Amino acid sequence: MGLIEDAKRGIVTEEMKIVAEKEGVTEDFVRRGVAEGHITIPVSPYREIKICGIGEGLRTKVNASIGTSTDFVDIDMEIEKARQAELAGADTLMELSTGGDFLEIRRRVIEATTLSVGSVPLYQAFIEAAQKKGGVVFMDPDDLFRITAEQAKLGTNFMAIHTGINLETMKRLQNQGRHGGLVSRGGAFMTAWMLHNEQENPLYAEFDYLLEILKEHEVTLSFGNGMRAGAVHDATDRAQLQELIINAELADKANDFGVQTIIEGPGHIPLDEIQANVVVQKRVTNRKPFYMLGPLVTDIAPGYDDRVAAIGASLSSAYGADFICYVTPAEHLALPTPEEVYEGVMSSRIAAHVGDMIKLKKRGDDLEMGHARRDLDWDRQFAVAMNPERAKKIRDERMPADTDGCTMCGDYCALKIVNKNFNF
Amino acid sequence: MGLIEDAKRGIVTEEMKIVAEKEGVTEDFVRRGVAEGHITIPVSPYREIKICGIGEGLRTKVNASIGTSTDFVDIDMEIEKARQAELAGADTLMELSTGGDFLEIRRRVIEATTLSVGSVPLYQAFIEAAQKKGGVVFMDPDDLFRITAEQAKLGTNFMAIHTGINLETMKRLQNQGRHGGLVSRGGAFMTAWMLHNEQENPLYAEFDYLLEILKEHEVTLSFGNGMRAGAVHDATDRAQLQELIINAELADKANDFGVQTIIEGPGHIPLDEIQANVVVQKRVTNRKPFYMLGPLVTDIAPGYDDRVAAIGASLSSAYGADFICYVTPAEHLALPTPEEVYEGVMSSRIAAHVGDMIKLKKRGDDLEMGHARRDLDWDRQFAVAMNPERAKKIRDERMPADTDGCTMCGDYCALKIVNKNFNF
Fold first, then answer.
1. Residues A386, A355 share a domain
2. A230 phi and psi angles, rounded to 5 deg
3. Which of A232, A358, A390 lies closest to B363 in CB terms?
4. What is the ipTM of this complex?
5. B267 and B407 together in one domain
6. Where does Zn(2+) bind (chains A, B) (predicted)?
């Protein structure tokens, strides 16, 4: 039996206890959240992981996506990326390889991490069709469902599945047009397939079958965002909203069937549309966990997209997004290096915390830092810093003569001057 | 005669024409803005600079602060920081040295830049008092006014002057207490002086005299924010608001007298108080240009404070802040290196642009990038990128086999798949 059914029957499972303990909420809060679909706890019968709850009332979580591409297939580097992501404090890992031996790469990465792992099964199905049959449009839906089950058995905890790109959604896209085109790989594969075969998306048409597979292997269904904007000028458009509406309907169905859900969201969104995206998403999905990809608030800063995403993600988590997918500085330019993976996770963790300061009023560490700075207590400052090593390194490289202060102000440290005169 | 008087008489000066041209607004819009104190154009009779307007209806500007401290005095490095700041696209430069030969450092830095330069004259006055008389509390107000005039003659365009920390403000601070203490060096020097001498702040008490000096040398008065919070838990507190009210009164007076003004603001502010800070600041100052320092939206990410400030600055510029002071990754830890100066400016420029996308609806470059990406036109992408070199470098290090796409998706580029099927 799955977590949702347990929760509905009033059973608090071990996973729910762990989440309650980690988050400082009651076990019953978590149980009710799981039962109602407001909280999702990715698990797998095939693998032990660091349990991580995602959803309402819980700390905002950060996902790091890694994976090979056709240009670069280096399993050791992928394992190093997984390691860097975990080191930097990612909560989950998506393994999105599109080059090399899929099964082997995923097996090795899964072995190398204790984090909850996600995948996108349709990549493998479409790419194998391209390799074996000469085109993604020759993908056989049976292979797609078979691969979904196979990936589940590797211990995959959640899967991004593009159910919402159906004929209805595609009509919206075609009627409307787009400035930045379609940038989701899954979305692109599926629309190409639908256009060529003049058939409905099998993940939509055979959704009940999909649910059976996911339920059997206890996989969390993360509704893919195939219509997400790839440019701020396409944000919050009719195609995106149409897909969201379809996914929201299916998510209720999944929840009733006992499959845990997450709903993915865009993408590229200008600052003044982020709140609307969160409110609408939460409303139409009946408060399912919201997985925000970025969002990027401007398109013109390639090379800095981790910082750009941190701006958007801070706001989206403040407004209620539960889970954010990191963006690395290499986004839009190249496959990220392990260092860029690390940087991307750090930027997202900052954003998640900034959001939690608002959403959950989690400001205790900030208060501690304020006091530690006032008291010029460097050990306490480092202890509460999100990345103590980085902070120490910068200070140690330029250690001041007077070790109370820092080299920024030297003898003229405001705090030292004032501490003599005030008694805060 | 100064710009304000010219503007009030209906004269459009050369500086106003340059600002109108650069910003794509009418000359009369700029003239009216200057007359009413909503727009400030720092100038100097002693030096030619790149003219830069700050205020309502204009692009958000970015300041980079540099300067020695008692631990590190290296003029060549300061010149390199000035160069890096300009290279990265800063609009103004504040030279805030507190160590070494002040006059010589400022002269050399001013020679090395074409940007508008700001200073804080009270640093020199207090530090010379400490050096020559054994304590900042022995500072002679006559020296402070003399130094203000001397710095003006070097070609300083704007000065941060701490007029608002008077006995009234200090009472608020003492009655209230603080989590993070007082973190403004100017604020700390002045409160220490006032407490020791049991006298009113001379910059407040002799404000008319100050205005005469500034008017004579055409210096823009940037009202210092001595009570700014140094911890998010002190944000928007009574001491900060009291200082703002005092400064707002004085700013009207300055404007009437023909001295251009800017009002500095905090500091450390949690995400949900930024809008209130901007609205209140704009309201009580009668829409004077608002110079936001940061703001930092969390205290616990030392080593990443440029990214943290970019989050706050994006929001504050979206809501109406006109001018933002950068923060470097070394903030709270050490004096920044030239590389950190560059990074800090880039983070702030991103924030300024993200704000301008909302405040001014400036989204043309984003639209161009969306189209260039859709068309896989890399030259156009680099041309419109905020930092083309950085973007090129990342892509070139990992150049794909098929040079249309990038190594992130390799053969399975969504855009390539979709462009074959759709006709956007």
1. no
2. -105, 10
3. A232
4. 0.95
5. no
6. 268, 332
